[in-house]
Amino acid sequence: MLARIALQTARAPFAATASSSLLPLASTSSAPAAALPVHARVFSSTAPAGENKAKRKARMTRRANLDKKAAILRELEQSRPDPVLGYQRGNDHLWENCLLNKVTIKRKDVWGEIIPVEDSGAAAAAAAEAQAAKAAEGDAKDGAAAQPQRREPYVPKYFNFGLDAEMIQQLSDTLPATSALKSTLGDKATSVDAVLLSRFEEANELEAQKREQLMRILDLRNADSKGIESYNKRQIVKMFGRAEADTGSPEVQAAILTLRIRSIFEHLKASPRDVENRQALRQLVHKRGKILKYLRNVSVTRYEDLLLKIGVEPRAVEGEIIMRKNELRSLIRGIDV
After folding, report:
1. In angstroms, rounded to a whole number, what is the distance separating the alpha carbons of residues 211 and 219?
2. Are 287 and 255 in contact (CB under 8 A)?
3. pLDDT tens for each residue of 196-238
4. What is this structure's pTM?
5. Residue 145 DSSP class
6. How do the domains of the chain map onto residue ranges?
7. d(Cα 261, Cα 328) in Å, to the nearest integer?
């Protein structure tokens, strides 16, 4: 009998809670809600029951450490260098001041700036005005005796076909003079008189024309993009190679890959829908990362020195290289994310 009374007393609070939850909505809205017993309020904003001061301190310390770690990860993600450029956006001075950028040439350096279509008419009009002014100045000096002016020999800024300075000097200076002397004197001549001197001057003029034609043929401006790339590769081998004609060292390979990455990146700016070259860009970035990681395992000094020479930050090649599609698209189209 006593046990039954104790059981009913223990079940009474729960029965009261269940009955109050089953009341209709109208009655609960019209009548004031009955206060629940103190022991039935299970939700609380205070520390968990049974947690002492040491446990609470440990829990708060752990939460603060997790928040700090998450903030550091967010900051690292925001300052992550771009894997294509090799540095964080805004740090363009790394590429502009590096050795690779200084020893290689760009297409605009060889071919000049491309004139837009809308500006071509204005440029042609300006050129016509300059030519008319020059003709008017020539007409003003019509009464004066015309003095023959010798034209300066044509010297290209860059040479094609891998010609070095010694070979250019022979083709430009030695060969025309020798050919003119041979045309004048012949193979067995031993003296020069007035007739031979006039013949020598004519032959020298002819050789000067031949030299100018040869220099124009050897000019790098007549080459295509492959010719410019070949010129840059020779410069890279000369400056980054550890020996003469060194084409297999990691420094040379990483520099050539960086130059190709920059070239494809400039192409994708003009043709952002070129999916094939976009995939090639991804492959080249990962290949460069493998070569640089190998060099880091071989020599940390050479690795750090090469990163400065090619304008790449260490975080752009260390760890996992991630190239997100939206980031690559925004980089190609020049949109800041």
Report:
1. 12
2. no
3. 677 777 787 888 888 888 888 888 888 888 888 888 999 999 9
4. 0.62
5. P
6. 84-108+224-333, 161-218
7. 13
| Residue linked to tokens 């050789």 | 207
DSSP state of 170: I
Burial-class residue 314 by CB neighbours within 10 Å (0-12, 13-18, 19+): middle
Q: Amino acid identity of 77?
A: E
Q: What is the dihedral of CA 169, 171, 177, 180, to 10 degrees?
A: -170
Would you identify the CATH topology of the domain 84-108+224-333?
A: Helix Hairpins (1.10.287)
State how far Cα 120 lies from the chain centre: 30
Could you tell me which residues come within 8 angstroms of residue 103 by beta carbon, excluding any fewer than 6 positions away?
235, 236, 238, 239
**What pairs with residue 219 in β-bridges?**
159
**Residue 326: C-alpha distances to residues 96, 202, 337 (Å):** 26, 67, 9
Query: What does the alpha-carbon distance between residue 114 and residue 123 come to, in Å, rounded to a whole number?
Result: 12
CA distance 265 to 272: 9
Q: Which two tokens stand for residue 254?
A: 């990483």
The full DSSP string for 180-224 is: HHHHHH-SS-----HHHHHHHHHHHHHHHHHHHHHHHHHBGGGS-
